[in-house]
Structure formats: C-alpha cells, structure tokens
Input
Amino acid sequence: MTKNNTRLGRTLAAILCVLAPVSAAAAAAAGNAVSESDQFFLNEAETTCSSGDFSAFLWPFANSRLVRERYSAPTIRTGVAGSAVAVPVARYLDADDFPVVMIDFTYVTVASARQFDAPGGGDPRQLVPVQVDFNISSGGIERVDWAPGRFEPGEGDGPGTLIERTGPGGYLIFERTADCWRLTADIRNPASAR
Output
C-alpha cells in the first residue's frame, strides 16, 4: 500500500466515523416512526399496565404488533398443547399468528379478520367470534383461554352467550413484570379438543 493509498484509507475511515452517528441517528428516527394506531395502542397498554387491569391489557396487545413486541418475553412457548416449544420472540412475531383480535367490542379469530379485510371481504358474517375467559391466578401468572364459537346475542357489547364451540382454541400465558405483563406462551389446543 502506498503512502497516498494509506492517506486515502484514513480519510475514508474518518469520513465514515463522522457519518456513522448521523446514519445511526437517522435509522433510530426511522425506527421510531410509529403509526397513529400503534401509538394509540401503546398508550392504552401503558394505561392498563399502570392501573393493573389485565383484562383491558389484552385489547391493545391483541390489536398491535408493536405492543406485542414491547410486552413479550425473549422466548415464547408456542405450538400445540403437549408439544409446544420455546422459540425466540422475533421468530414468534414474524409468524404473525397471534390468535385473536378485537373488532367492535368482540374478539374474533385473526384468520377471520384477515379474510374480512382481504379484497372481496368485508362481510361481517366472515368474522368468527371468540369466547375469551380470563383465568387470573396468583403468583403473577395470567391465563387467557380462548375458543371460537357460535353465540346467542346478548345485551350490551360483545358476542353474547357461547352456545357452541366451533374450533379448538387455545390459551395464552402472561407473566407479571415490575411494571406490566409479558406474553410467555401461546398454546393451541389439538384440533380434536372442543
């Protein structure tokens, strides 16, 4: 390497060192770009965390991937009951398979919500309502059992009274942290379970 090449190399290295913080700052700013919807759900999650209202926490968690990113454990046990495995949270989130989402005060399967949102969709009969039961236990563990079903309309918001299960469903496990909860398991019941 000649003297000029060495000088050129040092100059390029200096330029890169100066530009690196700018690029990192720009990348950080780009990473902080949050949709209005996600910001709303992040705020809702923070409010429910502060109030200790776990059943209200599930709504923003189910409706925002960004909330799921923030409030999930580093590994998530996932799969069918009896053969679930622990996977890194990034892999779990990339699968984009969280089972439920809330639409108009009713939890529905995420698969039916996608069908509803797809081109040619939009028929409310495509939505599969879900029974959600909060089984709050001691020791900071919260379990949410869910199952798709047919419902008899009731008074007020929500799907009504479950009259028949139409799918296997599953359960979610959340652990209490110092300031909120985090998802630790997403277990699906075997197809024959009703």
Observations:
- Residues 3-31 form the longest helix (29 residues).
- DSSP finds six helices and nine strands in the chain.
- The chain has one domain: 45-188.
- The longest strand covers residues 141-152.
